[in-house]
Design a protein that fits this description.
Structural class: alpha/beta
Bound molecules: uridine-5'-diphosphate
Strand order of the largest sheet: 7-6-12-13-14-11-15
Helix content: 25-40%
Number of strands: 16
Radius of gyration: 22 Å
Number of helices: 12
Shape: globular
């Protein structure tokens, strides 16, 4: 059988791309090596609760276009993420805001908070932050860096904060107002019927083959394809010929408890270095679902090794240079389009994934004219 597009990976990038190209009259085949669609946004019901099987996914965007797009496939609730940080039993509000500063220092005005931060970094003379540590210190001072950033970040990334790029910490909002709304985006929420149903709607009427490995399919040779959107790891695609890119993975330990409410919040971060997990997610708080039980997931970050799921690209200089080598190899493969967090080796949020998939669709449509 001939398909205009083979879409490798039934996650968000693949689903958006396949939907758009199918609607443009192209014949698409979507494959996934896993036994389910939706990639890492996959949710599954346990005790009536939608469990985020590959870690919490909270949709947020400031883009009207992206919001209108997702609302075609799912109805969203109005969930607002307001995580709590636990440092050795001390509790703080996140993101860093006046609540955090008051809990940390007893300050009550933005001016006092700014003065406290300035006093804490006065002897450091950081002009242009060179790494995550300097960036964090410049933003919030020594106390918050030590208690709420250093341990958590080093656990999550398995690297010293001095070796990590500063952009990672810039993801975290900093505001001198009493406001615990983490993303504070124009649009935010969780699909009421779960992300899997959203992906199902995106893929409706499109041929999907699960438990199907790209390399086996190509070796099999029964089907042929005009072009291929590949959303797996770019280094794996090229047989690791230039060396291995590094990724972080997450081990999720899930527990169903016979109690109504475990922690009273969807997300509690454990920011000290000693607690082996970074956070505990309590899934029922993402929706207003009623259940006598509750499902929680402990998140243990680990270095990615063969056989694990790759979650986070490590966008440091070394990996960036290696990624560029792979990117250059794509020039000889005009039939291949690389997309998604793993294909593009980028720390994308869901809304950026959708924007990027729509950009790829636009490029395809323009190329065809
Ligand atoms: N971070 C931190 N302390 C926290 C939460 C986050 O230092 O309590 C830092 C950490 O470096 C992390 C980054 O902020 O890698 C981004 O966190 P986010 O929650 O956005 O990560 P994600 O949800 O994508 O895993």
């Amino acid at each position: 059988m001939f398909y205009d597009y083979l879409v490798v990976g039934a996650g968000l990038t693949g689903a958006v791309f396949a939907r758009e190209m199918t609607d443009a009259g192209k014949r698409c085949l979507v494959i996934d090596k896993r036994g389910h669609i939706a990639g890492n946004i996959y949710t599954e019901k346990v005790e009536g609760i939608d469990v985020h099987r590959y870690g919490a996914h909270i949709f947020h965007t400031n883009s009207d276009r992206v919001w209108q797009y997702v609302c075609r496939f799912a109805e969203f609730n109005s969930f607002i993420n307001s995580p709590i940080a636990d440092y050795k039993g001390e509790r703080y509000n996140l993101p860093f805001n006046m609540n955090t500063f008051e809990q940390m220092w007893g300050v009550k005005t933005p001016e006092q908070a700014k003065a406290k931060i300035a006093e804490q970094i006065a002897d450091l003379n950081i002009d242009e932050p060179k790494n995550l540590e300097e960036q964090a210190l410049k933003m919030v001072g020594k106390d918050i860096y030590i208690k709420l950033i250093k341990g958590y970040t080093e656990k999550q990334w398995g690297r010293d904060c001095k070796e990590l790029p500063s952009f990672i910490i810039k993801r975290l909002p900093l505001r001198f107002e009493y406001d615990n709304n983490y993303f504070n985006a124009k649009y935010q929420g969780i699909p009421i019927d779960g992300y899997t149903a959203m992906a199902e709607n995106m893929l409706s009427g499109i041929e999907v083959r699960l438990n199907t490995d790209y390399f086996d399919l190509v070796a099999d040779g029964k089907d042929s394809f005009g072009k291929i959107l590949y959303t797996g790891k770019i280094d794996e695609f090229f047989g690791y010929s230039e060396g291995r890119l590094e990724y972080r993975t997450v081990l999720l330990e899930e527990k169903t408890l016979d109690i109504n409410d475990f922690q009273g919040n969807a997300v509690v971060n454990y920011t000290d270095r000693e607690t082996p997990y970074t956070r505990i997610i309590e899934h029922k708080h993402f929706t207003s679902v009623k259940s006598d039980k509750t499902v929680i997931s402990y998140e243990y970050p680990l270095e990615w090794t063969e056989g694990a799921e790759a979650y986070y690209p490590i966008n440091d200089d070394k990996n960036g240079a290696l990624y560029e080598k792979y990117r250059a190899k794509l020039k000889d493969r005009p039939e291949i389009i690389m997309g998604g967090r793993l294909g593009e080796y980028r720390y994308y949020d869901m809304d950026r994934v959708i924007e990027r998939a729509l950009e790829l669709v636009g490029e395809e449509k323009n190329a065809a004219v």
